[in-house]
Amino acid sequence: MHIRIQKLQADLASASQSISELKEQLQSKEKEHEAALHSLKDQIQTVKTQEMNLLRDQNMALSAELQQRRTDQESFMAQKDDLNSQLQEANRANARLLEQLNELGQEKERLQQDLEEAKKESEELWWGTLTPVEEPISQGQIRAGPVGEPVSCGSCSEVRS
User: Fold this and answer.
1) 75 CA to centre of own chain
2) At a CB cut-off of 8 Å and minimum separation 6, what does 159 contact?
3) Taking CA atoms, which of 21, 23, 76, 154 is between 20 and 30 Å from 123?
4) List of residues 6+ apart from 158 with CB closer than 8 A
5) Alpha helices of the chain — where are they, by DSSP H?
6) CA distance 36 to 29
7) Integer Cα distance of 126 and 129 in angstroms
8) What is the mean pLDDT of the segment spanning 65-83?
9) With bands split at pLDDT 50, 70 and 90, how would you rate the model's confidence at 153?
């Protein structure tokens, strides 16, 4: 029995030694795990920070682009309003010019009618002032009356002043 106790004591010592070694290994592994976990957390934090910086930069760039587009849009709208105003003014001016053109056309037509009437009256007055020629005029001969009086020739029946 004594041997058995010694053997049990040796097994106990060996087991204690193994437990002690396993505890050390466990503590070492826990420290490694904790260091790896801390390193991984640092890497994750670094990546998150980089991503946040990238997203912030992209957001700032997009905000600047959006602001520029809004500014451009406002400028284009102002230009559009200006062009619309100019177009309306041009349309009004064209309408006025068209009205003036119509008035000038009517005036021209009236003046042409007046001119035709004046020609007719002038011809009537002209033909009314002619006096018959007393002696016949041979062809190629021209007979002139007093200054301001009509002239006639023998080759035609036309009389000119």
Assistant:
1) 10
2) 130, 150, 151, 152
3) 154
4) 152
5) 2-129
6) 10
7) 5
8) 97
9) low
Give the number of residues written for the chain: 161
Cβ atoms 151, 142 nearer than 8 A: yes
Tokens of 58: 């992209």
> Cβ distance 141 to 125 under 8 Å?
no
Q: Please list the residues that pair with 56 across neighbouring strands.
A: none
What are the phi and psi torsion angles at 139 (to 5°)? -65, 135
> Would the pLDDT of 101 be above 70?
yes
Q: Which amino acid is at 39?
A: S
Closest CA to 3 of 94, 78, 11: 11
Query: For residue 7, is pLDDT > 80?
Result: yes
- Percentage of the residues of the chain whose pLDDT score is greater than 70: 80
Residues 8-39 pLDDT 10s = 889 899 999 999 999 999 999 999 999 999 99
Asked if 135 and 119 count as a contact pair (C-beta separation under 8 A), the reply is: no
pLDDT score, position 8: 87
Contact yes or no for 66/58 (Cβ under 8 A)? no
Any idea where the domains of the chain sit in the sequence? 9-123
Token pair, residue 160, equals 């000119």
What the block records as the tokens of 128 is 């009314």
